[in-house]
């Protein structure tokens, strides 16, 4: 499970980088830039949720070992 979540985090970071390249900084709320912004926010949310999941699994493992 650790490898799977790590791969998903790396994919989300890759999507953030890709969407930043699509972003038009002069008009960030028009056309494809808006779609890129939505993709960036969604990818940040995915990374955040996956990090919470990894931390909860570490806590669960420590509680089992006690």
Mean pLDDT: 94
Q: What structural class is derived from the secondary structure elements?
A: mainly alpha
* Assembly status: single chain
Compute the CA-based radius of gyration. Answer: 16 Å
Fraction of residues in helices? over 70%
Q: Could you tell me the number of beta strands?
A: 0
Measure the end-to-end span: 21 Å
Largest sheet: none
Low-confidence stretches: none
Enumerate how many helices there are, as a single number. Answer: 2
Strand content: under 5%
What is the general shape? elongated
Q: What order do the helices and strands follow?
A: HH
Briefly say what this structure is:
With 66 residues, the chain is mainly alpha-helical. 83% of the residues lie in helices and 0% in strands. It has helices at residues 2-22, 32-65.
What does this structure look like?
- The chain is an all-alpha fold.
- The mean pLDDT is 94.
Produce the secondary structure layout.
Blueprint: H1 2-22, H2 32-65
Helix pairs in contact: 1-2
Properties at a glance:
single chain, 66 residues, mainly alpha, 83% helix
């Amino acid at each position: 499970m650790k490898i799977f979540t790590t791969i998903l985090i790396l994919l989300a970071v890759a999507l953030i980088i890709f969407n930043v390249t699509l972003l038009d900084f002069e008009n960030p709320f028009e056309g494809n830039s808006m779609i890129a912004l939505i993709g960036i926010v969604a990818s940040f949310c995915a990374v955040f949720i996956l990090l919470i999941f990894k931390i909860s699994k570490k806590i669960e493992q420590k509680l089992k070992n006690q």
